[in-house]
Amino acid sequence: MPARPLADVQTLSLFGPEAPRAFGPGAVLLRGFATPTSDALMDAVEAVAAAAPPRRMSTPGGKPMSAAITCCGAVGWVTDRKGYRYTDRDPSSGRPWPPMPASFADVASRAAAHAGYVDFTPDACLVNHYAPGARMTLHRDEDEEDLDQPIVSISLGLPATFLFGGPTRRDRAVRLLLTHGDVVVWGGPSRLFYHGVLPVPEGRHPRLGPLRVNLTFRKAR
Ligand code: MD6
Ligand code: FE
User: Fewer CB near the terminus (10 Å): N or C of the chain?
Assistant: First the structure.
């Protein structure tokens, strides 16, 4: 019998879609929720990246982030020496950010509803590109105006360990191994909790190669 690639074993369930799993107050893991539409999502990632190439933005302190970021939607998130904020244009090109692909908005809204957050209509999507070794240090997502709205996060490509802590940086973090197609939704009591991503291990995804892509959807304005 031919060996089955490990990624399939992790996302294949004999019992149909996995039940949502809470890993914090208001924080829900939807294992494999985006797998059925991941080909369309990867097509759209490529189109967004062609229109607005991912770039390593500078933190306000002047250090380049290790992940390369681009955005789509009415507004996009940027960081530079002036700080963190949402803009309606890509500062690299001066053009509006690419529109949010319908495939993105659709799965994000369905995932939010599945996790208990109805009527989520994101206006921004960050598209983070992680080469092996890239990471995201502990941070809070606090630049959005409406903190009653959750965040939806979709992982594609290489697996990575996601850290989910608490209201202060020192709180103990749980670890989740996120693989291609996994979706995390959080809001409510944990909307401002610290979280991050450990350095992405070396590897090769059948379509994306040595890359992890994370989509995070927000209602920014
Ligand atoms: C990442 N994600 O998974 C980084 N933020 O690559 C985030 O920083 C994040 O996944 C808010 C909500 C979900 C996330
Ligand atoms: Fe975040």
Answer: N
